[in-house]
Amino acid sequence: MSNLVNAYPWFADKTEHLVALHNQDRLPHALLIHGMHGIGKALFAKSFAQLLLCQSPTGSATCGCCKACELNAAGNHPDLFILEPEEAGKQLKVDQVRGLGEFIYSTAQQGGYRVVIIDPADAMNIASANALLKMLEEPGSDTLLMLITAKMGQVLPTIKSRCQHIECTVPDESEAINWLITESDLDEASARGILQINRGAPKEALAYLERNQGEVRAQFIRGLTDILKQRRSPIEVAQAWQKMDLELVLGWFYSLLSDVARCSLCRNDSVLRNSDAGNMLNAVAKKTDPVTIFKLMDKVHEERRAIVLRQNPNKQLQLECLLMEWAAVLN
Ligand SMILES: [Zn+2]
């Protein structure tokens, strides 16, 4: 059956590890799967859930034709529960988490495991987390909870301490490039460039292509160049960026600045990750000192964090301030 999910190849060793634990009856009842956004953690969790539910798996592969595989392929296996916020970017409500209790404490309908995926695990307030704690402590036998997060710092310590952690890192560049080439029409150099812009996260790189973010990216780099060349003021550029996703843009800005810092410390432009802005970054690195850049990096990081935590009162004003500092890096 073709529509069962398969985790990305760079998760193969993790899947094998979990299968081995399961075969030895040592599978923990709660896993906290963490790692940066865009590397495929959710698909890894889902494919392992399907494997665990399959009635005749072979090693790390589902059979694709048992009753469980059929139900999974149709997306309605009664023993798989995926808990997500009702709206993307919102919190998991305490009632949603309580609803999970009924599932966990009932008997598995297909007689095997009950699997829960909570994504993202950082989208819980104290009340939701408390509702989950008891289930994490005593989930009952043959139950696996998989919690997923890209924001480990925002997962409550009480949740963290009750799970076994699986750290997911960015895949090898060559593996990620090969995958991206297979999924798109890119040549190797373009695939490498787009992967680097997206911090090595392959799924993020593919989403970048699919959402045509190249245009936004070009506008972003043009804005920074125009400020340095005094073709536009920081305020004008901040206005032009008004509709952009600031979390994304400040992530790019931070990455560009770290390139400048690296380049100016190493005196070598081969360390650049943002090759699409290479000329500008090189020019800035030659004319500024790393301390100025590190200070600006700290501010960009703080602003981005405030946006992620939704603590930012006036995004536009903050962006103008950051761009004014950017205008001053060459002075
Ligand atoms: Zn099966």
UniProtKB/TrEMBL annotation:
Enzyme class: transferase
Protein name: DNA polymerase III subunit delta'
Biological processes annotated in GO: DNA-templated DNA replication
A single GO molecular function term of this UniProt record: DNA binding
Keyword RNA-binding set for record: no
Keywords noted in UniProt: DNA replication, DNA-directed DNA polymerase, Nucleotidyltransferase, Transferase
Family matches, as NCBIfam families: holB, PRK05707.1
Organism from which the protein derives: Neptuniibacter caesariensis
Annotated catalysed reactions: DNA(n) + a 2'-deoxyribonucleoside 5'-triphosphate = DNA(n+1) + diphosphate
Lineage: Bacteria, Pseudomonadati, Pseudomonadota, Gammaproteobacteria, Oceanospirillales
Coiled-coil segments on the chain, per record: none
